[in-house]
Amino acid sequence: MYEELLEDIAQTNGLREVNTYTKLAAGLGGILLCLLSATCVAPLFIAIALSLALLILARIDVKTYVKIFVAPVIFAVFSVSVIILLAGGETVFWSWQPLSWLSLSFTREGINEGIFVFSRILGGTSALLFIALTTPMTDLFAVMRRARFPEEVLDLAMIIYRTIFLIMSHLVLVYRAQVMRLGYRTIRESVHSYAMLCGAVFIASWESGEDLVRAMESRCYDGKFAVLGEGGPVSLRSAFTVLCFLMISGILVATTRHITFL
Amino acid sequence: MHIMEGFLPWQWCVVWWIIAIPCLILGILQLKRVLASDREALPLLGVTGGFIFILSSLKLPSVTGSCSHPTGTGLSSICFGPWVTSVICAIVLLFQSLFLAHGGLSVLGANIVSMGIVGPLAGWAVWRTLRDTGINMYLTVFLACAIADLITYVVTSLELALAYPAEVGGFVSSFVLFLGIFAITQIPLAIVEGIVLALVFKYIVQLKPEILIRLKVFPDEKIRAAGSDA
After folding, report:
1. SS3 (DSSP) at B59
2. 20 to 30 A from B98, CA-CA: which of A23, A109, A168, A170?
């Protein structure tokens, strides 16, 4: 019904105590290098290296990791197939022109482009998951405050964050009760039950928001939330590992500009 | 519907960020104004953000067999206006990418433009046009939410087509193909989202109409009349 939040995993992963900036450097650096790469070599290296780091160092369950990866990959398969069919090129393996303005074809250049984009998605998604699965949001809030994000936005973000968990627990209760009363038996009933669930959750969360106002006002809320620090100190070993990873990826980006798959 | 991390070339990521940032600044300025005049609004805005997040992490009753999520932005934009919704959406999209691996960080600008700016703006325009007419309140909510969802999907297809134009037919044929491929899931999804959010609206009217009256979503008498009918 609802998806597992990566945040729950991030709170207990093996790299929880590593300095936030070190982890962000690896994740954001990975995303940036994937974008700058002109071939599939560097993104694939980044995907493999960060996935191994997540599975071995952060001790993320393999099954969970695969499950998280499925949704982006499904979207990627759809979109990349469009790119392959439309890209065109010199070496044509198959082509079909159903309309004067639409031509579908399999070409060497198209397949290379498709594989490149697909590898960039794999690399980018692994880098994103590296941040998501190792760094809890509370640590990121501290980083955002230091980076001088507008106070209002940050406070709003923190309230949204808190509300998500409040609503989630309420949602689970109502949903279970609905399932036990066969509320999702047919499509028609599902739509009704689902709308009732959303309505109940909206009202409940609204009331919890009002409670929050009262609680904060009575505790002298002055428009600024206190945030805790940003994890452990920078350790030489982890900083050196991240530096090596970024250097190898950077070298791959620079040296593999002309390698193609086909 | 989100574009995932790594899909757009870096040049397009930059372009969408450049378009998104002025709208977000406008939203933040409006947010500051709202908060300066009414501090109680902050938790309420937060609750709406939490609600959009939860709504988009729920799987809709399956229509095409695929895993579909509603966006929920239509309801927020008729409650708080499109610019504040863009800030809420930007935060929700960031959380979605970090909590659920939907979307990404480099493509956040593109996703904000489609789901946080253009979609809610379209939904808000529909609601604003129909609000004071004789058209049924629930039908207005249905249309606003369904159109916000539909336009989000059209803009996403546009973003994809601009980044990857076809060799023959260029941008247009690529746009049509992307539209066609995602129509399979997105059109039924928009309709179901419209129905669900209109029903959600109905429950709020029945159980807690004061929320809607306070936000001036519809004229008082219209909401009260609908509430007493139910």
Report:
1. coil
2. A170
Query: Sign of the C-alpha dihedral, residues B111, B116, B119, B121?
Result: negative
What's the pLDDT tens digit per position in A64-100? 899 888 877 887 887 788 888 888 888 888 888 887 7
CA A235 to chain centre: 26
- A202–B51 C-beta distance less than 8 A: yes
Q: Using the beta-carbon criterion (under 8 Å), do A132 and B5 form an inter-chain contact?
A: no
Q: Nearest-CA residue of chain A relative to B157? A: A79
- B116: domain range? 10-229
| Burial tier of A96 (Cβ tally within 10 Å: 0-12, 13-18, 19+) | exposed
Could you tell me the CA-to-CA distances from B59 to A194, B56, B136 in Å, in that order? Answer: 10, 8, 28
In a domain, B187, yes or no: yes
Distance CA(A172)–CA(A182), nearest Å, equals: 15
Q: Which band of pLDDT confidence, cut at 50, 70 and 90, is reported for residue A145?
A: confident
d(CA A114, CA A131): 26
Token pair of A43, please?
Answer: 């993104």
Cα-based distances in Å from B218 to A56, A72, B84, B140, B209: 55, 39, 18, 10, 11
Distances (CA, A) of B108 to A86, B102, B105: 25, 10, 5
> What distance in Å separates the CA atoms of residue A111 and residue A261, rounded to the nearest whole number?
8
Secondary structure letter of residue B114 according to DSSP: I
pLDDT confidence of residue A42: 93
Residue from the list B9, B63, B177 with its beta carbon closest to the beta carbon of A86? B177
Q: Model ipTM?
A: 0.85
Please state, in angstroms and as integers, the Cα–Cα distance from residue A177 to each residue in A12, A174, A199, B50, B201, following that order.
30, 5, 15, 22, 21
